[in-house]
Amino acid sequence: CSQEINSTIFKNGTFTSPNYPEPYPPNIYCVYKFIGKAKERLQISFTDFDLYLPPNPDEPPKDCEAVDAVMIFITIRGRRERLNNFCGNKLPAQLMSNGPTMELEFRSYHFTSQVKGFRSIYRFVTDFGISGTRAEGSSECRFIFRSEDRGNGTFNSPNYPGFYPRDTECHYTFIGKDKERVHITFAYFDVDGIPPCLSETASDYVEFSNYKTVDRKLARHCGIQKPKLIESDADFFRVVFSSNDKFDATGFEAFYQFRKQVEYPF
């Protein structure tokens, strides 16, 4: 029941548990291996998820151990690491790999006629699940928002509203017209970390800057408290999102607007 899916053959498609939507057999072990090109990321969205859980267990299975489950594995700096385990019938959040490869393992112990298994859609993408203009010539997560193209809009963490990928850095650059300022308002914010969001606490973070380098005036943001309204000092502004290889969250969504600076006569 194992499969290898290569992006040179299929850029998108579906994969399912054996026999889906009929019950899957007991005591099986399936590996779904996805291999993309160097600049691609894999995005996975489950459309149906229904795995058997023993009735009324004394306590929910920790990390889905010893029950029917789907396990997600990624490679971080040469290490194969387990990203998530999913069991039961709660639909998992959308996932994105941190690089061109990802593996899913499906194991079953039980047979019951009451469950369907799972169905999922996969896509190999290069846009990180972010709508915006890619920085010219860059395959990295770098996006540019110019006032001359659009006066307002939204931007988000990679793979939003699903889990953002680990070990990923994204740059969002805002370029206004002369005497314009950019205003940024966060509609949603969930970035794993402990303020002040330093590497010592293994925190992911969002950072703001009025320059092309670090802006010491502006603090990093992490956690679940939305930053207050952000306003740039001039017509250039930069936002950086950075995730490490430790934990996951669902990231952020923000609204931006370029506004003409009001000048008051003395």
Automatic annotation (TrEMBL):
Listed PROSITE patterns: CUB (PS01180)
Family matches, as SUPFAM superfamilies: Spermadhesin, CUB domain
Alphabetical list of Gene3D superfamilies matching this protein: Spermadhesin, CUB domain
GO cellular component, one term: plasma membrane
Top-level taxon in the UniProt lineage: Eukaryota
Keyword Hydrolase: no
Keywords: Disulfide bond
UniProt keyword NAD present: no
Secretion signal span: none
Domain CUB: 1-125, 141-259
UniProt name for this protein: Suppressor of lurcher protein 1
Biological source species: Parasteatoda tepidariorum
